[in-house]
Amino acid sequence: MGDFYQNGIITTLHNLSCRSAAEMEDELVKFSKTRPMSLVLPSLYSELQGPALEKIVTELQQVPYLNDIVIGLDRANLDEYKHALKYFGRLPQSHRVLWNDGPRLKAIDNMLQQQGLAPTELGKGRNVWYCLGYVLAKGKAESVALHDCDIVTYDRSMLARLIYPVANPSFNYEFCKGYYARVADNKLNGRVTRLLVTPLLRSLMKVLGPQDYLDYLDSFRYPLAGEFSFRIDVINDLRIPSDWGLEIGVLSEMKRNYATNRLCQVDVADCYDHKHQDLSAHDDQGGLSKMSIDISKAIFRKLATDGVVFTCSTFRTIKATYYRVALDFIETYRNDAVINGLDFDVHKEEKSVELFAQNVLKAGLHFLDNPMDKPFIPSWNRVQSAIPDIFEQLSEAVEADHKEFHQL
Predict the structure, then answer these.
(1) Nearest 10 degrees: CA dihedral of 77, 83, 87, 88?
(2) CB-CB contact of 317 with 309 (8 Å)
(3) pLDDT score for 340
(4) CA 222 → CA 178, 192, 268, 326, 343, distances in Å?
(5) 22 in the Ramachandran plot: left (φ > 0), alpha (ψ -120 to 50) or beta?
(6) 88, 110, 126, 314: which could join 119 in a potential S-S bond, CB 3.0 to 4.6 Å?
């Protein structure tokens, strides 16, 4: 059972009564009559071969309130796309699979590339961006939820709690972030949130002084959660990074576009586990190493847009401060693990902190060396301004793929 404490500047919606999924779904069915709901699932083809997505699809078959499901399929050839159509074909809801590697969607991507409007990196951010464009193109949804396809502990109550705050017409929230405790296999997980993001935010507060943006990010209990929901009007002006800074980038955009009383976070699960990334200590282009660099850069970029001036000396100070704060957090997490009877490897935790400290400085120096970086994918408003019929093209491409291949 969760606590009822409200800390920070973002409203927290707790799980105080373990309300049944069926009871919430009854309400959501009523809401769906005036506020249709869609779900976006960004997926790698490889996830179709694992147990997590199998359970997710089985649970989604029982969800009565969704009007539409949009699946973004990455890294799939033609045979794999055909398999995905059959795989998701059991869903009773209206649904479409975006074959991002297919010739039709690649042709749209090439057209956008020529005008400097396409995502510059492959990955989840690009997948999500095209899925959201398709949601806008279809015009079926008023409320949209998004979650990952590798959640091992998934059940349909997670989705109900995630979308409820933006689906309930009596609530005024435009955006909702899911949160949960990352505990599985008798140990604490969530290293990047625990050992990078929170200590980095506290370090930046020490070095830079009070910053509204830092207070805002620090209000989220799990800022890197891949589960969030929003009302449809959020999508038009949303600019998101195409790298691992996606979740931080989305939170930054919400801060830029909306008052904080229109944003909330909700407890969506007592138990949560998903695919774990390697630390990649010797490769800063992969795993948690790349993730830590991208996330740090996303935070530094946002602070710079708020008028913070960074120098090499600033980043060296931030690194040193971060390292000390993070080590103190390790002691805190160790004690939390011990009192709960969880395993805790201090050596692994400190190795992670040492790598993250190096990457905080790498991210800062990269930021200084590349002041003209354009990490954000353009908003769909801008794309539509440049190409007025882009939504028609996107919708027609997805429908053409579906009609050609779904019965083969």
Answers:
(1) 50
(2) no
(3) 94
(4) 8, 10, 11, 17, 21
(5) alpha
(6) 126
CA–CA distance, 182 with 202 (Å, rounded to integer):
21
pLDDT at position 373, please?
74
Residues 250, 68, 267, CA angle at the centre, nearest 5°? 45
> Which run of H or E residues covers position 279?
none
Cβ within 8 Å of residue 363, ≥6 positions away: 292, 293, 294, 296, 297, 300
Task: List, for residues 77-117, the tens digit of each pLDDT value.
Answer: 999 999 999 999 999 999 999 999 999 999 999 999 999 99
Question: What's the rounded Cα separation, in Å, for the pair 163 and 38?
Answer: 9
- Beta strand ranges found along 21-93 (DSSP E): 37-44, 66-74
Helices 124-138 and 390-405: angle between axes, nearest 10 degrees: 100
Structure confidence at residue 282 (pLDDT): 67
Q: Please give the Cα distance from 232 to 229 (Å, whole number).
A: 9
Q: Give the number of residues written for the chain.
A: 408
Distance, in Å, from the CA atom of 102 to the CA atom of 73, rounded to the nearest integer, reads 10
| pTM listed for this prediction | 0.93
Task: Show Cβ contacts of residue 120 under 8 Å, excluding neighbours closer than 6 positions.
Answer: 242, 374, 375, 377
Q: Which of 94, 36, 45 is nearest to 70 (CA)?
A: 94
What is the Cα 369 distance to its own chain's centre? 27
Q: What is the DSSP string of 158-178?
A: HHHHHHHHHH-TT---SEEEE
Structural domains in the chain plus CATH codes: 11-398 (3.90.550.10)
Residue 387: strand pairing partners:
none
